[in-house]
Amino acid sequence: MIDINKIRADFPILKEKVNGKQLVYLDNAATSQKPQVVIDSIVNYYTTINSNIHRGVHTLSQKATDAYEQARIKLQQHFNAKKSYEIILTAGTTHSINIVATGFSSILKKDDEIIVSAMEHHSNIVPWQMLCERTGAILKVIPMNLEGELVLSEYDKLLSKKTKLVFVNHVSNALGTINPIEEIIDKAHKVGAAVLIDGAQSAPHIKPDLQKLDVEFYVVSAHKLCGPTGVGFLYGKEEWLNKLPPYQGGGEMIEKVTFEKTTYAGLPHKFEAGTPNISGVIAFGTAIDYMNEIGFDNIASYENELLEYATKKLLQIEGLKIYGTSKHKTAVISFNIGEIHPYDIGSIIDKLGIAVRTGHHCAQPIMDFYKIPGTVRASFSFYNTFEEIDLLYDALVKAKTMLC
Ligand SMILES: *Cc1c(COP(=O)(O)O)cnc(C)c1O
């Protein structure tokens, strides 16, 4: 069970006023808010153990290294990776995808095929297009239907011996659809292709079991699950991380450097050049602990109740159309009201203290598919309330009256 008052008290920002109104934060798919323990974790790091990791023999450096490495182990345990060094700490989902996409330059050949889905975030499209330009590989797209679900019968037709890699998001940030990744992974493996899952939107709501999924790569950003911005990880199966070349050269990622030849360090250091966001990684570990204390089952069932309530309530508004109506969804509602531009709705309800996202949500191909310029997106987290959904409803009714 969720003790909503206790949880809300953990998030100092929820007491803030915006434009003179109580903040109603419904932009959780863009980034989540941070509980006090996560904020404290960053402050404590800089107040008591700040120093560079993996380098010094001195006590502080060892404390910082221990805290950093403990966070990696927390992530390993939470996501059930086999080895802690299969968790590469990065600047987030975008960075993680670029490590893999750049690395595949040395694996793919001309006319090899790679498969993406029609409902991806730009950060799971553009790095692969750049890869195709470098290698001459061909990008194929799994289409979607009007409910906002992938058409798996079409996926079957795209798969062949030429397929080397499939990359799909676990949950769509623009629609909330939970994709059937087990089936997608299984089918890719049958033709010998590797799979990368973009878990940026799933990790905040679902606890994925990486070994059970048997996926080659899984990528996550901390800031969408109560952690800081600019931190995340790339999970890769050991054999695949060994196959990929390093992404960046620099300190920390070498075994031996001479001007004639440099040999690289082993995992995970090969992919962790330079001084990382140490406090951010430690705070990411704190965020995972915090969410586990609440419990991912509790989070998912509460958010489902919010989704069901909000869907029914918003559909009472005449002319409101929801994009993404799959039965398998996280608590995201993407919608438009009649012909009103999403930006106009977003601006008016912002004056009432309500934060939602408007626009294409970094997923322009989805908007093109529905032939719309964008949507208003309300995305809910376990610290949102039913009362906040009522406030959203009232604000939308007001906006509609003003704009029609
Ligand atoms: C947010 C998001 C990204 C990008 O994450 P960054 O933290 O900005 O790198 C990629 N994919 C999906 C599905 C997302 O929601």
TrEMBL record:
Pfam families given in the database record: Aminotran_5
Record key words, sorted: Pyridoxal phosphate, Transferase
Classification of source organism: Bacteria, Pseudomonadati, Bacteroidota, Flavobacteriia, Flavobacteriales
Name the UniProt record assigns to this protein: cysteine desulfurase
InterPro entries given in the database record: Aminotrans_V_dom, Cys_dSase_SufS, PyrdxlP-dep_Trfase, PyrdxlP-dep_Trfase_major, PyrdxlP-dep_Trfase_small
Catalytic function, reaction form: (sulfur carrier)-H + L-cysteine = (sulfur carrier)-SH + L-alanine
Transferase listed as a keyword: yes
Protein family membership: Belongs to the class-V pyridoxal-phosphate-dependent aminotransferase family. Csd subfamily.
Essential cofactor(s): pyridoxal 5'-phosphate
Source superkingdom: Bacteria
GO MF, one annotated term: pyridoxal phosphate binding
Alphabetized CDD domains for the sequence: SufS_like (cd06453)
Enzyme Commission identifier(s): 2.8.1.7
Organism of this sequence: Gramella jeungdoensis
Keyword Membrane: no
